[in-house]
């Protein structure tokens, strides 16, 4: 889902000590694989730079991580034809840059702590629709697993490196491009 509380006009930043007192927003992410083990990535609509990411978003109150992942995938991509392959061992976190904290989620969170799921896309590409009511993306493509860290915004690079490391045996064992 889009960031309904994203306010690009919010000004100011907070210092590191203030940020460290804030909690993480709980979220999920989906590493969606095509039959050739390429990963779905889409370019964010709310960024001035070429920021690509995989489908991800917050967990609603009372929602479990896996249903949240299916919901976010459908909301952001239109995709429902999937098979669950794996779940990340741990929750993975990223911190927002200090100047972004006041602009996202009403300044209530320092970043996100996410549970990630690898899923196989079983449908036809005509199922993919990034232009839904809560459009977050302007375009999408399939990428190799190894290029993911180079596509993401700098503050999420380490999280994407950890995803590549964790899911590489699952994907590369199936012949993914490196």
What do these coordinates show?
- The protein has 178 residues and is an alpha+beta fold.
- It has a single domain, classed as Nucleoside Triphosphate Pyrophosphohydrolase.
- It is 22% helix and 28% strand.
- It contains four helices and eight strands, in the order αββββαββββαα.
- The protein has helices at 16-21, 65-77, 148-151, 157-172; strands at 24-33, 39-44, 52-53, 56-58, 82-87, 92-95, 111-121, 137-143.
- Strands 1, 4, 5, 6 and 7 form a five-stranded mixed sheet that branches.
- 31% of the residues are buried.
As a percent range, the share of strand residues is 25-35%
Structure classification? alpha+beta
CATH class term: Alpha Beta
Query: What count of structural domains?
Result: 1
SSE diagram, text form:
Blueprint: H1 16-21, E1 24-33, E2 39-44, E3 52-53, E4 56-58, H2 65-77, E5 82-87, E6 92-95, E7 111-121, E8 137-143, H3 148-151, H4 157-172
Parallel strand pairs: 1-7
Antiparallel strand pairs: 1-4, 2-3, 2-8, 5-7, 6-7
InterPro entries: Nudix_hydrolase, NUDIX_hydrolase-like_dom_sf, NUDIX_hydrolase_CS, NUDIX_hydrolase_dom, RppH
Keywords: Hydrolase
Family: Belongs to the Nudix hydrolase family. RppH subfamily.
Which short descriptors sum up this protein?
178 residues; Nucleoside Triphosphate Pyrophosphohydrolase; five-stranded mixed sheet; 4 helices; 22% helix; NUDIX_hydrolase-like_dom_sf; Nudix_hydrolase; NUDIX_hydrolase_dom
Summarize the structure.
The protein has 178 residues and is of the alpha+beta class. The chain is 22% helix and 28% strand.
């Amino acid at each position: 889902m889009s960031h309904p509380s994203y306010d690009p006009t919010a000004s100011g930043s907070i210092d590191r000590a203030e940020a460290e007192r804030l909690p993480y927003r709980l979220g999920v992410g989906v590493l969606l694989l095509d039959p050739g083990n390429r990963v779905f990535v889409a370019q964010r609509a709310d960024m001035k730079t070429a920021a690509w990411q995989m489908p991800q978003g917050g967990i609603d109150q009372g929602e479990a991580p896996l249903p949240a992942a299916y919901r976010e995938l459908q909301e952001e991509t239109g995709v429902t034809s999937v098979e669950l392959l794996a779940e990340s061992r741990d929750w993975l976190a990223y911190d927002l840059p200090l100047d972004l904290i006041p602009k996202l989620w009403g300044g209530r969170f320092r970043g996100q702590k996410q549970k990630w799921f690898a899923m196989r896309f079983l449908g036809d590409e005509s199922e993919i629709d990034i232009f839904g009511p809560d459009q977050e993306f302007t375009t999408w493509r399939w990428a190799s697993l190894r290029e993911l860290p180079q596509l993401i915004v700098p503050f999420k690079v380490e999280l994407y490196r950890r995803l590549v490391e964790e899911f590489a045996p699952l994907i590369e064992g199936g012949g993914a491009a490196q």
